[in-house]
């Protein structure tokens, strides 16, 4: 149950004393911001490890509810390999008072983000790319910049990312910034890789504060885009002009549902991207956690025999992830909506597109990019058709052949393939025997005969 939104200084600092008298709106806003800033500094000092690094995530009331994404994230810390201590260094940023109340019930380190201008409600589930969603993700960038200004490093993790092993083991100390990848092309320091800033580590420095200032300023140049899209647009400029060193994590170890990585032996984190809706994320991540616990129960010999894969059993009404396993009593049917062929072609196209951002493409490369895009669109259409056929196959497996819908669909197919009448001269023939005779006579007269030609070539 949601509670009324309290001022940030009252929610974050419950022992704060009241000031006698009535303050002006300007003084009240200043006092609220000052109190929230003081509380943030206090929490950072408490949560940070010996290297002044903080792990942080953000939740609204929908994500923090009992049995929702926050519970799954905390469970992954406790069930992972030697990463339970990271929970002590986790700062949960609550976007509304309901999320703060729920966070304090399950975790000791919670911070209420000061409300946005206009007092927008951030408690409900946000539709991807809606205006409220954009305001939410950009408020996250502003808070991250403030943490850097206070001298703390941070590792931000989206709340729909499960942790299984220590991700710091995959990070280079030479990088100013480390991010997960939507598309990874092999070179961890190449800006050609496509970033996913839902998993982002940044070391505090004056350089990185400047990078975040430029990042936020670039929002005006790319209206309607979220923070990850804007960073992808300006990453080459940041590397060239600001000397930014970005490490892109490979999708074998820091994976997502968008990728085809399915081996617990190499997995460090898993992001529930390419899953639309809170219910679908909870269903798939819950199944993933069950599979991980089963993996942890294996002995070393079982793990070493080869890739240890898992199933993603998705309900038919929530089949929104790109990599699906539809479970049934007779076994499971794997549905890969983006098989390796189309994914490989898409990576080539993305590489050529990224190259074009750095310098104009030569005519042969421009032609190749056009051909690759055409090939990808064709394969994607084929993949879509294959997925539809698999869905029909699953429906038939479950006994839908006896339903009224299937009978109507079959009758419709027969009607589509039936010729009801043909025209012969000035008459319309509709009886089957007459149509058969007319068709035979027509083709018998023209096949094997030489028709009159208006022009000839005399050789």
From TrEMBL:
This is Nucleotide-diphospho-sugar transferase domain-containing protein. Residues 1-34 are annotated as: Disordered. InterPro entries: At1g28695/At4g15970-like, Nucl-diP-sugar_transferase. It comes from Triticum turgidum subsp. durum (Durum wheat). Residues 88-285 form the Nucleotide-diphospho-sugar transferase domain. The lineage of its organism: Eukaryota, Viridiplantae, Streptophyta, Embryophyta, Tracheophyta.
